[in-house]
Write a structure and sequence with these properties.
Distance between the termini of chain A: 69 Å
Number of helices of chain A: 5
Mean pLDDT of chain A: 79
Number of domains of chain B: 2
Number of helices of chain B: 6
Largest interface: A-B, 52 and 42 residues
Strand content of chain A: under 5%
Shape of chain B: elongated
Strand content of chain B: 5-15%
Oligomer: heterodimer
Number of domains of chain A: 2
Number of strands of chain A: 0
Order of helices and strands of chain A: HHHHH
Strand order of the largest sheet of chain B: 1-3-2
Largest sheet of chain A: none
Structural class of chain B: mainly alpha
């Protein structure tokens, strides 16, 4: 295996590993559920992408043909990651998970739970009432 | 429709899905041997037959080239999103100002809306959380909200929604 190839593969592995690590650090450091959701959905995609890229290159170099399973893994990952995040966020809303104090527009959780359109911003103080009245 | 056409659409209700299934089956097994092609074909006929009644009518992709263009843009944004979020996560926590926004959407049909919601989740600092029943509002959680909420809404609408709209022509 040539030095250049080794270098590229190691770089891919390293950067992939770093991104996955950062994703996990994010899970630990961030302060509420919704914010935590961002770390694994984003950082992990690129992290796994890097590891899979390294795997494709390595196998290509070793066997002489592109192994397609990695492409499939990438495809499934890209399809499933946003769906999981969406469902998790939705469930969190339904359980009224605690928000960070700084969170802006927390009243949107209520209309979102009821799957209603948001009420106009100018009377945001009585959003809750307006939200329930609109139901009919 | 000719008799052949009728029989064809009965036996293979979703031709595009069937072809995709065969290809994915061959990719999974990473072979092109006759046995697997046959087995894959049988699966590609049976599975769509079972799933066809569950299908909702979807708008057709009108501009396939735009779809490829869109995929490339999203791919680029995923890389940018990863780096942005990574930097935010490592940096000081009091820099993070999360918030919710409701984005008005003008798309019709579940497929375009799903595509938009998934894109929003994969791209910089936003996760789609819910959709209003009338499918006109997309609730989005933003990791780091700029001073003006409208910025986020405009970004999503201009960069992604307008393109999705073009692809499906709706």
């Amino acid at each position: 295996m040539s030095f250049l190839m080794e270098l590229i593969i190691s770089l891919l592995l390293l950067s992939g590993g770093i991104f996955v690590l950062v994703g996990s650090i994010g899970l630990l450091r961030l302060q509420d559920f919704y914010v935590r959701l961002h770390a694994p959905t984003k950082a992990t995609t690129l992290g796994l992408g890097g590891v899979l890229g390294a795997s494709i290159l390595y196998m290509y170099h070793l066997q002489g043909y592109v192994s397609i399973n990695e492409l499939l893994i990438t495809l499934f990952l890209v399809i499933t990651a946003p769906v999981t995040a969406h469902i998790l966020a939705k469930v969190a809303m339904h359980h009224r998970v605690k928000l960070m104090e700084r969170t802006r527009n927390p009243e949107l959780v209520e209309t979102s739970r009821a799957q209603l359109p948001p009420t106009p911003i100018d009377n945001s103080s009585d959003d809750k009432k307006a939200g329930t009245n609109r139901e009919v | 429709m000719s008799l052949f056409g009728k029989v064809f659409s009965r036996v293979i209700p979703m031709p595009l899905h069937s072809i995709t299934l065969v290809i994915v089956w061959l990719m999974l097994n990473s072979t092109t041997s006759l046995g697997h092609i046959l087995l894959g074909s049988v699966l590609a006929i049976i599975i769509p037959l079972l799933c066809a009644p569950l299908r909702l009518p979807q708008p057709k992709v009108k501009r396939p080239l735009k779809l490829i263009n869109y995929a490339l843009i999203v791919l680029k944004d995923i890389v940018v999103a990863n780096i942005e979020v990574a930097l935010l996560v490592i940096g000081p926590m009091d820099k993070i100002n999360p918030g919710f926004v409701a984005v008005p959407i003008e798309l019709t049909g579940t497929l375009p809306v799903t595509l938009l919601a998934s894109t929003v989740t994969m791209t910089p600092g936003t996760v789609s959380a819910d959709i209003s029943k009338d499918q006109k509002w997309l609730y989005v959680h933003v990791l780091n909200m700029p001073e003006q909420e409208q910025e986020v809404i405009d970004f999503i609408k201009q960069r992604y929604e307008s393109r999705v709209k073009e692809i499906f022509g709706c």
